[in-house]
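Memo to structure team: turn this sequence into structure tokens by end of day. - J.P.
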Amino acid sequence: MTLLPTEPHVYLESADPRLIVADMDGTLLDEHGRIPDELWPLLDVMKERGITFVPASGRQYFRLEQMFYRASSGMPFICENGSFVVRDGEEVSSCSLPREGVVRTVEALREAGSEVGIVVAGKKMGYHERTEPEFLGEVEKYYRRAKLLDDVLKYDDDVNKVAIFDFGDAESGVYQDLQGKVDEYSVVVSAKQWVDVMNPSADKGNAVRALQEELGVTREQTVAFGDFLNDVEMLEAAGMSFAMANSHPGVFDVSRFVAPSNTEGGVITVLRHLLGLQ
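Reply from structure team:
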């Protein structure tokens, strides 16, 4: 089912959203990686109506907080693909990756000779050891606080995940390299060039359920938007789930609706319908 900008939807008109969760890249952000200007007044409307809006991303908390500085007060953030949920600098929930998992992942990549950049994503900092401009540009995109180490395993932090940047295609590259190597952990393709290794209990869906319980919100009162494989569990946790028109093929199967693409402002279009402003 596709929701078009000019097509009012009876289901949405009768909906009672209390929790709205949106992925970032390929979903909320435009083609230039920017938050649409149209979102800010909608956030004010949602706050006035007691609706909680939550960005959900593979990004570090400090980067998300910076991006939403105009409205971050009281806003929960689902960070690091669901392994870390934070509001006003305070941890709401977390699901850390044990050191054994970090070591096994890094050593497996080294043994396979994988041409990748590794970020050990801690709660305090993201730790990396490569300095190629392409890789550093991606690190800066996702991590506001990052530290260069001569060995990425020399970190001293609680770890949310190991994020792995493939200089080619992650799904056909490093994701395949890790098959059978770290099966007791969750290995997720989070973007075209990124794979995340996390605690098996860590995903955006469990993060959404933790917020639902804390806020007293039902699945039916939850709206979620996503476009990639790391959004699947989040979409399944929402009664009103929207795959973006530009989504990975695997996302459409778990979504109730299809929204216009991120380049067409699909999240903004649906939010206006939900809020009765369209």
